[in-house]
Each structure stands twice: as C-alpha cells, then as structure tokens.
Amino acid sequence: MTIGATGVDVDKIVAELQATVDRKMSQGRFLNSRIARAERTNLIHLRDGEDFVTFYLACLRDSVYVDIGDFEIHEQRRFLAKPLIMLKKVIWKLLKFYTYHLWSQQNQVNGLIVSSIEAIEERSVRRARGIENRLNMLEKQVAELRAAKGNASHD
Fold first, then answer.
1. Is 119 helix (H, G, I), strand (E, B) or coil?
2. Which of 26, 30, 34, 131 could serve as 59's disulfide partner, Cβ 3.0–4.6 Å?
3. 26-36: average pLDDT
4. Whole-prediction pTM value?
C-alpha cells in the first residue's frame, strides 16, 4: 500500500511520527507497548493459536502489575506552571496512601488472573498433547490390525 498526494512529503511525515513515538517511548509514555503490539497483531495471529497465546501471555506477564512508584509531575501549560505543579504534588501526597492501597490490591488481582490463565493454558496444552499421543497410538494400532487382517486373508 502506498500513501501519497500532491504536495505531501510522506517520508517526512513518517519520519516525524517515528521521532515523536521514539521521544514518547523514551519518556516512558508507552510502557505497555508489547500489549499494544499484541492487540495490533492479534487478528493476524488468531490463525496460529499456540503462537498467539504464548505471545499474549508473555505480554500479560510483562505488564500485569500497576507501577505504584512515585512519578515526576509535569505541567504543559506555561502560565502558572510552578504553582500548578506544587498543587498537584500536594494532592498526590494526600492521595498516595489511598492509591497505593488500591493499586496493591489491583496488583494482587492482576497477578492471580494471569496465574490462573497460565495454569489453564498449561492444562489445555497437556490435555491436547495427551489426546494427540493417544490418537497416534490408536492410529498405529488400527494400522497394525489392518495389516494383520490383510496378512490373515492372504493365507
């Protein structure tokens, strides 16, 4: 697919977009980029369920926990930026206890959910392998019976 229009420098636009994404990633704004990549590619990978599930579980493991650490407070407005930052810091200090409590509970729930999904996946894989092994064994037995029956009818 190509994109173009008269007077539009597509390469320049793409370069600017990439630079913006790179800058925002370095600032930590896209910490869950693996999840975003998984969502973007999930329709493609649905055909190959085993690879998709493995990839998606890895993404979940990487981003299951909410970061409850302190963070730098920024203000993009220039007018009254310093007082607004100070106000936000005071509000953050007042709410920190409550948010930490909620986030720690959420982290526990998230961890349990991912663990249960992984356990279900592992159990499903073990069952599927067991069924495949049993099917192979039964197919081998059927082939042996057919061969024995064929040999018996020739005698």
1. helix
2. 34
3. 61
4. 0.54
